[in-house]
Specification:
2 domains, 12 strands, mainly beta, 6-stranded antiparallel beta barrel, Elongation Factor Tu (Ef-tu), domain 3
């Protein structure tokens, strides 16, 4: 479980094809998250929960299979790319974001980027099946970053990014047409599932 508060931007060192080309071993250089990492730990990379399989100094290696590569933007990574990193939530730790599972629901595309001084408004487009799990002022994780939804429409939504988020996460480098990982709010998923199970469409 994660909070969506990115601890640092890591750098992709290498991506090596494995399992007859259906998976990869992804190695990332870090400044912070390696300091207490152990084999088997879960770390969110662009919001996608992966398991540490190797540790070499400041570099951590992970395996990603075909499902992960196809459903997330990790399949588009190249060496030297920046990625958002977050260690799993520790019991008793302050929680400044929201509950994030690290299981990506969908890919969204940057639809608009509007600069507002040092701030920026981003619009993301994705299928309406996912916006049904969103609400104005609710939470969403974008590339592993916990953000507040500003405006939700049928097939897109917006967020407002402060200077810190733009500087300290990969969103600062995103441009129109780029793809990002989306995880909708856990509570919204359960509510939607219960409504579907009872044959209701509204509460």
């Amino acid at each position: 479980m994660f909070t969506g508060l990115v601890e640092e931007k890591g750098t992709v060192v290498s991506i090596v094809s494995t399992n007859n080309g259906t998976a990869v071993e992804l190695t990332v250089a870090t400044d912070v998250v390696h300091t207490d990492a152990s084999i088997g730990d879960s770390i969110a990379i662009n919001g996608c929960c992966l398991t540490v399989i190797k540790i070499d100094g400041t570099q951590l290696s992970f395996e990603a299979g075909s499902e992960t590569l196809n459903r997330t933007n990790l399949g588009k990574l190249e060496p030297d790319a920046a990625v958002n990193l977050e260690r799993a939530l520790a019991v008793g730790q302050r929680m400044g974001g929201h509950y994030v599972s690290g299981h990506i629901d969908a890919l969204a595309t940057v639809d608009e980027r509007n600069e507002d001084g040092q701030w920026a408004e981003f619009w993301f487009r994705l299928p309406s099946v996912w916006t049904k799990q969103m609400a104005n002022k609710g939470s969403v994780a974008i590339d592993g970053i916990s953000l507040t939804l500003v405006n939700v429409q049928a097939d897109r939504f917006s967020v407002a990014l402060i200077p810190h988020t733009l500087a300290e996460t990969t969103l600062g480098d995103r441009k129109v047409g780029d793809t990002v990982n989306i995880e909708t709010d856990l509570l919204a998923k359960y509510v939607q599932q219960q409504l579907a199970a009872t044959g209701k469409t509204t509460l």
